[in-house]
């Protein structure tokens, strides 16, 4: 990868001064100029770089800092190369200058086990350049203490190049618990073509979820840069790899379903597109009632088996059911689907299902064909509330609460690169942990195979 010289990152300027000064005392320095020159020309610029030249045990989360006296920093290039014999690709590093251009600090942490070369240039008032170089080695990661992003969570992962609906969350699952949630949040950078505010929340210690304040604006690209290499997730546990995901937000399709009216409305880009008669969950017992609140399209299936035998209901039980449906669109983890139900003669008239939204076959096929993952499905008037951790129920949490539960406690502006907080920061024990609102009800009352 070609090394990138630094340009200022506006969202990081304010926080850099203190970090740059901390390590300057142990820095590699370089200066120049003719001490015998008595003509009154400007003093030569002097540079200090930390970590110092020759260091062999640099922690992966140590910041790189550059400071200048008698001049302004004009260029900093950081090259990270794997030790000889390893095949890991070279990695570049960006950083940010303060307003005076006298201090520079790296934006992200260092890849474990790399050899790093920092080359800095400064100019004095006469435009004369001074260059300094520091070469050092980053400590390698330890087997069993390497944080990685999981990629095997069913069909729920965002795929590079995928087109999604306007409610799509960014869900990141880790293979190990994260204790320093604020550091990890600060390392995950979300940038959209149409700027908005957004923030991360945590559901347990292994799942981080990003959503914007409002739905994404349609027809735009969003990039997620996971700058996790070198981030200390917990004591002695470091991220080992950076990765990136780019996805496309497609058209805005919004579905509203009224429990009382047994009616579904589909709007696309502000225009009413379709209306369908439906039947929701009967109220003969609480577990059959379809939840109110914003759901999201999660998965789509054809010829999908639905049964409550996964809850231990035997075939001899009068409440037992089993159906194979032609088209099924999952909208929760507790078994709620939009699906075909040719056996239901009460569409548009009464709620008779076990929690799903029943539809005519042709209508359910249309929904199946026209739905994208992340399309909002807002169900109203059922009297039973959707849980925030039931599948992708993240939109039922209001923005103020969502922001409060972020480990950094600050929104990020997706209009440019940079995040609140710092991946180099002090450990933030337990910050942002979500206790799993409604988890017991979501996971225990309804079959994951669907409430037909």
Automatic annotation (TrEMBL):
Q: Where is the signal peptide?
A: 1-27
Which key words tag this protein in UniProt?
Acyltransferase, Cell shape, Cell wall biogenesis/degradation, Peptidoglycan synthesis, Signal, Transferase
Q: Which residues form the L,D-TPase catalytic domain?
A: 253-380
Q: Where is this region: Disordered?
A: 80-111, 405-452
For this protein, the record's InterPro entries field holds: Big_10, LD-transpeptidase, LD_TPept_cat_dom, Transpep_catalytic_dom
Query: What PROSITE patterns does the record tag this protein with?
Result: LD_TPASE, PROKAR_LIPOPROTEIN
Catalytic residue list: 339 (proton donor/acceptor), 356 (nucleophile)
Question: Locations of Basic and acidic residues compositional bias?
Answer: 425-436
Q: Which SUPFAM superfamilies match?
A: L,D-transpeptidase catalytic domain-like
List the biased-composition ranges (Low complexity). 408-424
Which pathway does UniProt place it in? Cell wall biogenesis; peptidoglycan biosynthesis
Q: What is this protein called?
A: Ig-like domain-containing protein
Organism equals Nocardiopsis endophytica
From which lineage does this chain's organism come? Answer: Bacteria, Bacillati, Actinomycetota, Actinomycetes, Streptosporangiales
């Amino acid at each position: 990868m070609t090394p990138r010289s630094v340009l200022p990152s506006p969202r990081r300027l304010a926080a850099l001064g203190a970090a740059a000064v901390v390590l300057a005392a142990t820095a590699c320095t370089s200066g120049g100029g003719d001490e015998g020159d008595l003509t009154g020309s400007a003093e030569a610029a002097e540079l200090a770089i930390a970590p110092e030249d020759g260091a062999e045990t640099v922690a992966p989360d140590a910041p790189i800092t550059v400071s200048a006296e008698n001049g302004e920093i004009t260029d900093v290039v950081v090259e990270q190369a794997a030790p000889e014999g390893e095949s890991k690709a070279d990695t570049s590093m960006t950083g940010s200058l303060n307003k005076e251009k006298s201090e520079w600090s790296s934006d992200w942490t260092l890849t474990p086990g790399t050899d790093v070369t920092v080359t800095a240039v400064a100019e004095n008032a006469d435009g004369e350049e001074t260059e300094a170089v520091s070469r050092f080695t980053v400590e390698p990661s330890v087997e069993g203490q390497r944080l990685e992003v999981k990629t095997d969570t069913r069909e729920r992962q965002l795929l590079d190049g995928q087109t999604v609906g306007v409610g799509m969350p960014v869900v990141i699952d880790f293979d190990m618990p994260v204790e320093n949630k604020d550091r990890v949040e600060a390392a995950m950078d979300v940038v959209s073509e149409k700027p908005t505010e957004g923030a991360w929340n945590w559901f347990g210690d292994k799942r981080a979820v990003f959503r914007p304040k409002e739905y994404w604006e349609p027809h735009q690209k969003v990039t997620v840069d996971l700058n996790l290499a070198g981030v200390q997730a917990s004591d002695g546990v470091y991220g080992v790899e950076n990765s990136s995901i780019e996805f496309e937000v497609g058209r805005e399709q919004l579905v509203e379903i009224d429990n009382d009216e047994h009616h579904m409305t589909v709007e696309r880009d502000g225009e009413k597109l379709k209306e369908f008669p439906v039947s929701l969950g009967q109220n003969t017992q609480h577990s059959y009632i379809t939840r109110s609140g914003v759901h999201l399209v999660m998965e789509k299936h054809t010829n999908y088996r639905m049964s409550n035998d996964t809850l231990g209901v035997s075939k001899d039980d009068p409440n037992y059911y089993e159906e194979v449906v032609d088209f099924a669109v999952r909208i929760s983890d507790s078994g709620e689907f939009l699906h075909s139900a040719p056996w239901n003669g009460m569409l548009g008239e009464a709620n008779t299902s076990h929690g799903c939204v029943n539809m005519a076959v042709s209508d359910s096929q249309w929904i199946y064909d026209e739905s994208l993952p992340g399309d909002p499905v807002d169900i109203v008037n059922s009297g039973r509330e959707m849980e925030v951790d039931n599948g992708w129920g993240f939109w039922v949490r209001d923005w103020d609460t969502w922001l409060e539960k972020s480990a950094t406690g600050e929104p990020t502006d997706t209009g440019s690169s940079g995040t609140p907080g710092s991946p180099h920061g002090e450990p933030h024990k337990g910050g942002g942990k979500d206790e799993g609102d409604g988890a017991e009800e979501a996971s225990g009352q309804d079959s994951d195979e669907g409430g037909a």
